[in-house]
Amino acid sequence: MGRVKVQKMPTIRRLPTYLYRLNEMRKEGTSIVATPELARYMDIGEIVVRKDLSITGVTGQPGVGYKIDELIAAIREFLGWNVETKAVLVGAGSLGSALIGYDGFEEYGLSIIAAFDRDPAKAGTVMRGRPVIDMVELEGFVRNHKISMGILCVPAAVAQDICDIMVKSGIRSIWNFANVALKVPADVIVQREVIAGGLALLSVKRLRHFAETDDEEE
Amino acid sequence: MGRVKVQKMPTIRRLPTYLYRLNEMRKEGTSIVATPELARYMDIGEIVVRKDLSITGVTGQPGVGYKIDELIAAIREFLGWNVETKAVLVGAGSLGSALIGYDGFEEYGLSIIAAFDRDPAKAGTVMRGRPVIDMVELEGFVRNHKISMGILCVPAAVAQDICDIMVKSGIRSIWNFANVALKVPADVIVQREVIAGGLALLSVKRLRHFAETDDEEE
DNA sequence: TAGATTGTTAATCGATTAACAATC
DNA sequence: TAGATTGTTAATCGATTAACAATC
């Protein structure tokens, strides 16, 4: 099922946030950054930041910090974001629209070149600068443009069908925002996003927090 | 900064997915489920599933499985989702629209009762059945309706300002989809969603996977 | 009774944190 | 030289996995 074990998941998840902040700082004209500053920004410990950054192989200057340019380049290379990845997005609803309009992706080496939708009324339109194409064209388009990544934003009920078409067309990694566990061959990688997971975390934090507050009041 | 340490994060993140699947099964008329089936669905090990479920306190029947009704009730209670939480959403763009339209939230005890936007043209309209209100009304609305949760879907540049208004109005937990680290008082909890984190994970999996495939070809 | 599954206890593994020498 | 920060090594902690007795 394309299950690839990845270590240091928490670190990898944080890398885009470092990258985002480092890009901001570069725009502001800063060229050096030290861990205490990043730690404050990320709201995590300094040691965590240093361990995180060490995964990229960059070395900083003791007493000074890290070169921002080096860090940016190293993070992008570590994630493979220095090479452009072409992707198609399927499901031109509001979530699809939000994703296609997120311009940070360009910075992350992700280029969403077209959106697909089942609705004939949407086909032929332009969404945030990208063409919306009828679903029947998906397979041919992916083959012709040698697309390797698919972003799935369709309702759960049709997700597996669309997934099958993607796989058949040659797509090898799928970013899945539909609420289903997709079945794919072993050489296809799926990353499933479950936004409710974040809500669950927030809910538990609230409960713990209220419990603590109650304790203090006793 | 409202940092609450939460253990068993991976388990908590998975709970909504169990809940979703269990609800599906209940609708299909099933009343008992065993770990092997859930493990296949989640694409994780059986032992993981059992450990995950044990956090809720439910006990299954050896040789048989768990009662689906019991599991659903226990997960909802563990997450505090058996009690309705009223929330407002700020930023009626495409992401906001996607979130407000997600009907799964009702099942999760989350009731988004209104959306707010700076754009006067949007104020007075209805989005997916919820009123869109001008931002200036936010503080009064939150106070009047005793809203405790805010969902932040505004551009990064204005996120801190909106966050400040939320906090001032009495909101105590914020689900933050803006790409910034919010500064909040100690008694306010923030859950930040970084979708690019998932993309980073997918990217690394791809790199590892390709590396493995190359090895095999040698 | 046989087969299946639960749930506990122990063992392994990895991630986080602490301490500190090395460096600018 | 003094102050600050890096990066390594060791210690702690928690999560994952394995083994297996208990139960239906």
Features:
homodimer, 218 residues, alpha/beta, Arc Repressor Mutant, subunit A, Rossmann fold, 2 domains, two-stranded antiparallel sheet, 9 helices, 48% helix, DNA-binding
What do these coordinates show?
Two copies of one chain form a homodimer. Chain A is α/β, with parallel strands linked by helices and 218 residues long. Chain A has two domains: 9-79, Arc Repressor Mutant, subunit A (Orthogonal Bundle); 85-196, NAD(P)-binding Rossmann-like Domain (Rossmann fold, 3-Layer(aba) Sandwich). Helix content of chain A is 48%, strand content 17%. Chain A is built from nine helices and nine strands. In chain A, the strands form two sheets. Chain A has a seven-stranded mixed β-sheet, with helices on both faces. In chain A, strands 1-2 form a two-stranded antiparallel sheet. In chain A, a hairpin with a 2-residue loop joins strand 5 (126-127) and strand 6 (130-134). The first copy, chain A, is globular and about 60 Å long. At the A-B interface, helix 1, helix 5 and helix 9 of A face helix 1, helix 5 and helix 9 of B.
Task: Outline the secondary-structure elements.
The structure is a homodimer of 218-residue chains.
Chain A: H1 9-27, E1 32-33, H2 35-42, H3 46-54, E2 66-67, H4 68-79, E3 85-90, H5 94-100, H6 104-107, E4 110-117, E5 126-127, E6 130-134, H7 138-145, E7 149-152, H8 156-169, E8 173-176, E9 189-192, H9 195-217
Parallel strand pairs in A: 3-4, 3-7, 4-6, 7-8, 8-9
Antiparallel strand pairs in A: 1-2, 5-6
Helix pairs in contact in A: 1-4, 2-3, 7-8
The structure holds a DNA duplex (24 and 24 nucleotides).
